[in-house]
Specification:
Elements lengths: L1 E6 L7 H11 L3 E6 L3 H4 L2 H8 L20 H11 L2 E7 L1 H9 L5 H8 L4 E5 L3 H5 L1 H12 L3 E2 L3 E4 L5 E5 L3 H12 L9 E6 L4 E2 L5 E2 L6 H12 L3 E6 L11 E4 L3 H11 L5 E4 L6 E3 L17 E3 L3 H8 L5 E8 L3 H12 L3 E6 L11 E7 L4 E8 H14 L8 E2 L8 H6 L7 E2 L2
Parallel strand pairs: 1-2, 1-3, 3-4, 4-5, 8-11, 8-13, 11-12, 13-16, 16-17
Antiparallel strand pairs: 6-7, 9-10, 14-15, 17-18, 18-19, 20-21
Bound molecules: cytidine-5'-triphosphate (CTP).
Length: 430
């Protein structure tokens, strides 16, 4: 889904950089339109680098034309039609007045008139300007026309005063955008194969070697993918959980059965997520009869097949393969070595060292690791983390040819360096 962020000229313009990141974390395609005044606060390059798309700054700006762009005279119409939401942050008193009175004298105000998409505004201004009857009347007009006003907070203002007028936090603005966009369907057309739970390797008819995996993470991923429009195949080891509705469940017990089920169904999948805790070893001999206590006992174990590595070897073009790993130390180093060894596109490193997160908990924290990025996902519910994992997985799909890495970053870009995820480099379209 595509969202246009309009940036007007206020000191809070720098916060729009964080808003762009927040929206991208939701796997949204973000385009940025800036007013001339906004360019005095933040360089357009900052937003170009963050969004990966050229930034539109002027109605008649020739630099807006070029390969892949619309003719500038109709660009505002094209942008207005392509956007599924327009969010203006910060929205100055001036831009609110122009919107309210239909003045179309720059790209943003013209686009506002031309779009049929939902419009949100996040006002930011001095408290007296905010409280002025003219501003309040303009806001009333906009509300009556269906514009969602994301109320500013109360606090210290850039002008030195204290009061209402502080722009809402980027996370709150992003949340309002997501609410307006409605349930996500960004996985429509995808088939997601998820493995979940632990496996059991029999010793005799009543005993097995297993692990503490509950299946909660994998089931949460299956549910999240289904609710975002994917067809889901959930291959599950023994688990006490009810499977999510509208998900095909294949029940298995052993690592070998899980391997067979995964290999059998993987050709249907566009995304494979291997969150199961598969046994690394199985007993060489499985007794037909219940083993008797006869003093000390040694059990010989043989390694199981590494299903993740095998899936990565056999993958078809365009198929994304995401693994999991439980690391307690040197997480990024160990995780990256595992990623390369297994040939997956990404590995989600579970934090199993915390008291509140990991195995059998409803909470989890993780690092989403690719060969070039390490995205920290702090403690949250497994259901929320499932969405974050799917968001980052979809970002791996973005066409790489559009992306050119920027080697030198301007001082402005320090804003992004601070807000950007570690190791993720700014991107810009040639
Ligand atoms: N995996 C698999 N087949 C196995 C073992 C593991 O597909 N026989 C997958 C898991 O589903 C998971 C990832 O590989 O996606 C975990 O790799 P693994 O090497 O087992 O890592 P850890 O569980 O972290 O254990 P260790 O570091 O001891 O290897």
């Amino acid at each position: 889904m595509r969202v246009t962020v309009g940036v007007s000229g206020g000191i809070a313009a720098y916060k729009a950089a964080e808003l762009v990141r927040e929206l991208q974390r939701q796997a949204l395609e973000v385009h940025v339109v800036m007013t001339e005044a906004a360019c005095k606060f933040v360089q357009p390059l900052t937003f170009a680098a963050l969004s990966g798309y050229k930034v539109i700054t002027g109605l008649w700006d020739d630099s807006n034309s070029g390969p892949g762009s619309y003719d500038s005279s109709i660009e505002h119409i094209a942008e207005a039609q392509a956007a599924q939401a327009l969010v203006v942050a910060p929205a100055t008193a001036d831009i609110l007045a122009r919107f309210a009175h239909g003045i179309a004298d720059n790209f943003l105000t013209t686009m506002y008139l031309a779009t049929k998409a939902p419009v949100l505004v996040a006002p930011a201004m001095n408290v007296n300007m905010w409280e002025h009857p003219a501003t309040q009347a303009n806001l009333q007009i906009l509300r009556e026309r269906g514009v969602r006003v994301i109320e500013p907070g109360v606090g210290d203002l850039a002008c030195g005063m204290v009061g209402a007028g502080r722009m809402a936090e980027p996370a709150a603005i992003a949340e309002a955008v997501l609410t307006v966009l409605g349930p996500r369907h960004d996985l429509a057309g995808e088939t997601v194969l998820v493995t979940a739970g632990g496996t059991r390797e029999a010793l005799d008819p009543v005993r097995f070697i297993g692990n503490r995996s509950s299946g909660k993470m994998g089931y949460a991923i299956a549910e999240a993918a289904q609710s975002r429009g994917a067809k889901v195949i959930l291959i599950s080891g023994p688990s006490a959980l009810y499977p999510p509705s509208n998900v095909e469940v294949v029940k298995v017990t052993t690592a070998e059965q899980m391997r067979n089920a995964v290999l059998d169904r993987m050709s249907e999948a566009t995304i494979v997520i291997k969150s199961a805790a598969v046994a690394d070893y199985r007993p060489v001999v499985v007794s037909d009869q219940k083993l008797k206590r006869t003093g000390p006992m040694t059990i010989e174990l043989a390694p199981t097949e590494d299903i993740l590595a095998e899936v990565a070897r056999r993958r078809h073009a365009g198929q994304l393969i995401i693994g999991f790993a439980a690391e307690t130390e040197n997480r990024v180093e160990n995780g990256r070595a595992k990623l390369l060894r297994k040939g997956a596109d990404a590995i989600v490193i579970n934090d199993v060292s915390g008291d509140r997160t990991g195995i059998d908990s409803d909470l989890n924290a993780a690092t989403f690791l690719t060969t070039s990025t390490a995205i920290e996902m702090p403690e949250m519910s497994k259901r929320k983390l499932a969405d974050r994992i799917l968001d980052e997985t979809l970002i791996l799909r973005r066409p790489k040819h559009l992306i050119v890495e920027v080697d030198s970053v301007s001082a402005q870009d320090e804003i992004l360096q601070q807000s950007a995820t570690p190791a993720r480099r700014p991107i810009i379209v040639e």
